[in-house]
Specification:
Layout: E1 4-8, H1 13-24, E2 28-33, E3 47-51, H2 57-65, E4 71-74, H3 81-86, H4 88-108, E5 113-119, H5 142-161, E6 164-170, E7 172-174, H6 192-200, E8 207-210, E9 222-223, E10 225-227, H7 228-241, E11 247-251, E12 257-258, H8 259-270, E13 276-279, E14 288-289, H9 294-300, H10 309-322
Parallel strand pairs: 1-2, 1-4, 2-3, 4-5, 5-6, 6-11, 7-10, 8-13, 9-14
Antiparallel strand pairs: 9-12
Helix pairs in contact: 1-7, 2-4, 4-5, 6-8, 6-10, 8-10
Bound molecules: uridine-5'-diphosphate (UDP).
């Protein structure tokens, strides 16, 4: 049976891939996005886009009142760890406070299911790798803290009002729609894989490696890169699991790759060298983040279809080659929200 969903931030990188997955299974999707970081062209035909800011409370109320909603997916957020270290209150307010207000509005409007785009940045410098859902919470940046604020609000919304929620703690979302419709387009781009690809293509200056003196085998940070289509699939499975109650899942491939590993993978896929500079550490970066995703696998059967770094880089590269200007909507405010 067709279901109806509200997707905040559905014009953004991960959100747009989830919207595509919902449309593919025949659901009705309404995206709410302020298009400061999202892109109109990232909302595939079949979904409706409402250009609105979640901080506009009367507007949000009107949108939620136009239910019923089977569930709300909440992606809209500022998402840069480094930026959050420079502008903590912007993150705590725009992400944290706005997210809590969204949850309160959902409760008022009778929404019963909520899926949150959360983050591995909650875990700080964890004592054990890989990181399971029981690992100690100690956000390493205001960005992580802002997501924790929302997770905690969901806990209380569940306890007091019966709102069921899935908190999906992504490790490093990467890659692009294997069908080539969607990809990563941030302005400015700060993420490792698209930067390495553009550096290899000579479209930007050399990649600066942020820190080569970490206590890791090659001195660079280790991350768990997970394909954005696998993330989208995890959202659908987590949603179905809500019928049994609220869940929290860590989402990664369980494999760590250093910055230098990523550079090698991009070189292999592009057939070009990635020019490099070795730079200082970036504030807020934990040395190693690798997920234990056994829980979502056990409880929902989720398994990544694209666990290999080569496949992740290949889809990202294909998107870049086919869309050298991204979604081609620069100017008009895209990215003007971001100051590094
Ligand atoms: N990184 C880097 N140079 C860059 C961008 C990222 O060395 O220009 C490193 C960063 O320090 C981190 C890893 O690459 O260890 C992944 O960073 P990204 O910003 O892609 O994701 P994050 O881990 O912040 O979510």
């Amino acid at each position: 049976m067709q279901q109806r969903f509200l997707v905040t931030g559905g014009a953004g990188y991960v959100g747009s891939h989830l919207v595509a997955a919902l449309i593919e299974r025949g659901d009705e999707v309404v995206v709410v996005d302020n298009l400061r970081q999202g892109h109109r062209a990232a909302v595939l035909a079949g979904a409706r886009l409402i250009e609105a800011d979640l901080a506009d409370a009367p507007r949000l109320d009107a949108i939620l009142a136009d239910g019923p909603w089977h569930a709300v997916f909440h992606f809209a957020a500022l998402s840069l760890v480094g930026e959050s270290m420079a502008q903590p209150f912007r993150y705590l307010l725009d992400n944290g406070a706005t997210g809590i207000a969204l949850i309160a509005a959902c409760v008022r409007h009778g929404v019963t299911r909520f899926v949150l785009s959360s983050t591995a940045n909650l875990f700080g410098t964890p004592a054990r790798i890989p990181i399971d859902e029981e690992a100690a919470i100690d956000p390493s940046s205001p960005y992580g803290e802002s997501k924790l604020m929302i997770e905690r609000a969901l806990f209380w919304a569940g306890r007091v009002h019966g709102l069921r929620s899935a908190c999906l703690r992504y490790f490093n979302a990467a890659g692009a729609d294997p069908a080539g419709r969607l990809g990563e387009d941030h302005d400015p781009e700060t993420h490792l894989i698209p930067i390495a690809i553009d550096a290899a293509l000579g479209r930007r200056p050399p990649l600066t490696v942020f820190g080569t003196d970490y206590a890791t085998p090659d001195g660079t940070c280790i991350r768990d890169y997970i394909h954005v289509a696998d993330l989208a699939d995890a959202h659908l499975r987590a949603l179905a699991r809500l019928e049994e109650g609220s869940v929290i899942y860590n989402l990664g491939n369980g494999r760590g790759h250093s910055v230098r590993d990523v550079v090698r993978a991009v070189e292999a896929v592009t057939g070009r060298r990635v020019p490099l500079l070795e730079g200082a550490r970036r504030a807020g970066d934990p040395p190693v983040l690798v997920a234990a995703s056994e829980r979502i696998n056990r409880e929902t059967g989720w398994q990544p279809r694209y666990p290999d770094l080569a496949d992740i880089c290949r889809t990202a590269y294909a998107w870049r080659l086919a869309h050298p200007q991204g979604y081609g909507d620069r100017g008009g405010g895209a990215g003007d929200d971001i100051t590094l």
